[in-house]
């Protein structure tokens, strides 16, 4: 990414002027008017002229024109530049989900990419990477391929080795992998790289997601909460000590957190509600403790392999297309681009927020394709 085009701000053409608010009482300089002055000789289409009043007791007002100073030959704009930043993305197991799209967007902005992959899916994911199966989807805007510096085995349901049940330890799907609890992965990343700047939570699982909430067992409900929301608390808890001040985290939520989505069951709607509530609380705690920003993206439906577990993802995608204000397909890249913005310096004052990336579907209170309306 190119360097930020504006190297500084230059004050020019300072001169006394009359303010429209000469009678305004103020104990300090105050902005009273912003005008526009066109320039054809500087290469800038326009720049603002700001008039401000002098301290109390003076009738003199001063106007200054402000324009951005740009380095010659450097493209104009606000680039998302994450060069020198390191991101750990938990929950990447293939190339067609939001986690992958976020990884690509961060890589395109210059970040170094580490991923955590669910242990039972680790061998297939690494084999596919090694054999070039993902090469086409690894392509970045400049034509290069996204490089994943290291893949870590991860099961975010377990905080430490002491939490792992014996039947899981002996499960053949976990054979050959070690140090995959949240605590161990954070320690491994610290030993390998020292620190990170960006933490992405792209994890969700509800073993009873196809069951209505009234039919969901306690075990299934708590499993959904554990895998889909507490896992983010655990990740931030263990990674916060190795996150550089000014860093940022992102998680993924869904509109079922605040609206009834029949069929999205098993406690998953409750888990998403908890995730959004935790985002606000963790924004305060991590912000005060480590100067870390915490946001979540409420993404629209995507036909990923994981999403197909709910059984009617295609219908949800069709519903969104028909009823959203922006009647277009929602692309995973659009979520990835939003994540890149949110973890970048351009979003340095945004934390504790739920950001909707769903073509505006969340704003609708009426389905335009309802038989009641269409008739």
Automatic annotation (TrEMBL):
Pfam families: adh_short_C2. The keyword Isomerase does not apply. It is found in: Plastid, Chloroplast. Pathway: Lipid metabolism; fatty acid biosynthesis. One of its GO terms (molecular function) is enoyl-[acyl-carrier-protein] reductase (NADH) activity. Transmembrane segments: none annotated. Keywords: Chloroplast, Fatty acid biosynthesis, Fatty acid metabolism, Lipid biosynthesis, Lipid metabolism, NAD, Oxidoreductase, Plastid, Transit peptide. Catalyzes the NAD-dependent reduction of a carbon-carbon double bond in an enoyl moiety that is covalently linked to an acyl carrier protein (ACP). Catalyzes the last reduction step in the de novo synthesis cycle of fatty acids. Involved in the elongation cycle of fatty acids which are used in lipid metabolism. Required for normal plant growth. Belongs to the short-chain dehydrogenases/reductases (SDR) family. FabI subfamily. Homotetramer. It comes from the Eukaryota. This is enoyl-[acyl-carrier-protein] reductase (NADH). It catalyses: a 2,3-saturated acyl-[ACP] + NAD(+) = a (2E)-enoyl-[ACP] + NADH + H(+). It comes from Leersia perrieri. CDD domains: ENR_SDR (cd05372). Its EC number is 1.3.1.9. PANTHER family: ENOYL-[ACYL-CARRIER-PROTEIN] REDUCTASE, ENOYL-[ACYL-CARRIER-PROTEIN] REDUCTASE [NADH], CHLOROPLASTIC. Its main location: plastid. One of its GO terms (cellular component) is chloroplast. GO terms for biological process: fatty acid biosynthetic process.
């Amino acid at each position: 990414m190119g360097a930020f085009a504006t190297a500084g701000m230059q004050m020019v053409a300072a001169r006394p002027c009359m303010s429209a608010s000469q009678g305004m009482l103020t104990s300090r300089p105050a902005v009273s008017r912003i005008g526009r002055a066109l320039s054809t000789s500087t290469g800038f289409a326009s720049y603002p002229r700001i008039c401000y009043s002098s301290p109390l007791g003076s009738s003199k007002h001063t106007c200054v024109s402000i324009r951005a100073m740009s380095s010659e030959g450097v493209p104009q704009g606000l680039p998302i530049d994450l060069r020198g930043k390191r991101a750990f993305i938990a929950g990447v197991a293939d190339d067609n989900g939001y986690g992958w799209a976020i990884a690509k967007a961060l890589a395109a902005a210059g970040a170094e990419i580490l991923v955590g992959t669910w242990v039972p899916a680790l061998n297939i994911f690494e084999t596919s990477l090694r054999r070039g199966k993902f090469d086409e989807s690894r392509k970045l805007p400049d034509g290069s391929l996204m490089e994943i510096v290291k893949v870590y085995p991860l099961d975010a349901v377990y905080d430490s080795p002491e939490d792992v049940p014996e039947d899981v330890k002996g499960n053949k799907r976990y054979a050959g992998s070690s140090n995959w609890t949240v605590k161990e992965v954070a320690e491994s990343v610290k030993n390998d790289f020292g620190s990170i700047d960006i933490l992405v939570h792209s994890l969700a699982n509800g073993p009873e997601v196809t069951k209505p909430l009234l039919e969901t067992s306690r075990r299934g409900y708590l499993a959904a909460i554990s895998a889909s929301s507490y896992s983010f608390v655990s990740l931030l808890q263990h990674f916060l000590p190795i996150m550089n001040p000014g860093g940022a985290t992102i998680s993924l939520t869904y509109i079922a957190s605040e609206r009834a989505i029949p069929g999205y069951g098993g406690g998953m709607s409750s888990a998403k509600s908890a995730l959004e509530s935790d985002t606000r609380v963790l924004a305060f705690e991590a912000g005060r403790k480590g100067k870390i920003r915490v946001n979540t993206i409420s993404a629209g439906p995507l036909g990923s392999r994981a999403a197909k577990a709910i059984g009617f993802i295609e219908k949800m995608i069709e519903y969104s297309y028909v009823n959203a204000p922006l009647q277009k397909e929602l692309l995973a890249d659009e979520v990835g681009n939003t994540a890149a913005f949110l973890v970048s310096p351009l979003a340095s004052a945004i934390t504790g927020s739920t950001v909707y990336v769903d073509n505006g579907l969340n704003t609708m209170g009426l389905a335009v394709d309802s038989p009641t309306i269409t008739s």
